[in-house]
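<amino_acid_chain>
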Amino acid sequence: MSYLHTLSTRSLLVLVAAVALLAGGGAAIAVAAGGGSGPTPPPEALPQALHDALAAPKPDGITARIKFTNNVFPSGALTGQAGSALLSGASGRLWLTNDGRGRLELQSDAGDAQVVWNQTDVTVYDASSSTVYHAKLPAQQQSESGTSAPPSVAEITDFLTKIAQHVEVSDARPTNVAGQPAYSVSVSPKHDGGLLGSAELAWDAARGVPLRVGIYAQGSSSPVLQLEATDISYGAVSASDVEVAPPAGAKTTDLGTPSANHAETNAKPVSGLAAVQAAAGFQVVAPDTLVGLPRQDVRLVRKAVLVVYGHGLGAIVAVERAADTAAAGKSGGMLSSLPTVSLDGATGHELATQLGTVLGWQRNGVDFVLAGSLPPAAAETAARDLGK
């Protein structure tokens, strides 16, 4: 994504991050390889196609009709949320300015979902729950100012050669998206990919604007997540299109700011099993291996212990913290509304998706959350082994 046009890349990254955060997906993004009818650009080597996209002049603004697909969650997995446009998918409109502001509006039977952002803030309104989510964005890097020269074809070729050690990268494929001649490229992990099948991206061949992004699970021909333009036009966008406040009276959830814990972030990390055990204040469970995966890291993050097994997207992450005594007997914490599973005497709460599984349970005064890009049965086996 970093090798696409500055304006559109930043705007779409903000958009996709906000939608993924609220949809619980937070995964990679990809695009369907097929395209719509219409003219296609001439064949071009991927490094040259990416260089041309980066070097293309910025549009004054973008207005588009879009389609958002979300097949991450199986039917009934999230009680009471099936009608949300953020969780079930929807269609809508997108507005982007050339100074980093934008708005995405999605429509569904449960009501609209709206994402509004600028250079410093993002706000998401979900009508199905009448909730506003607000977050500060990370400080923009100087290199995103748009004044620096795009990387050369040689530099892009070198970058692609390096990442090819870890992923398979396709050629630039001529296609047509939203009536625009476009190129698409797919990326798939060579190893340790978990349940991820491939990630793909398509962009306007003349302007470098991303037109469709999404992700595919292993063995699936349909996208798990996808955001695509079905119609697009370029030209100035008025401030009134991107400066829209959520309805009065909606409840607000503040998701925090990246700099809120600056002092804590700069503190010397506590890592290594012995040091973490001494500082944790509860009995840390971190066997040398978990379902055959070697332990790679143990560290204290605020009041929780983070344990990582394996490498890459196939890794398993376990988070442990002292159980809240006020909630004794209420296993699962934030996951408590999810379907239950039996874990050798403990009751777990499980969210199973096409891209991975999250499982929470409580044992011996410790709350556990295990997550990984693995099927439910494998996650449950790992949870049982962790609880021994």
Observations:
- The two ends are 42 Å apart (CA to CA).
- Residues 1-34, 142-146, 260-264, 328-332 have pLDDT under 50 and may be disordered.
- Helices lie at 6-23, 46-55, 85-88, 153-163, 239-242, 262-266, 273-280, 376-386.
- The longest helix spans residues 6-23.
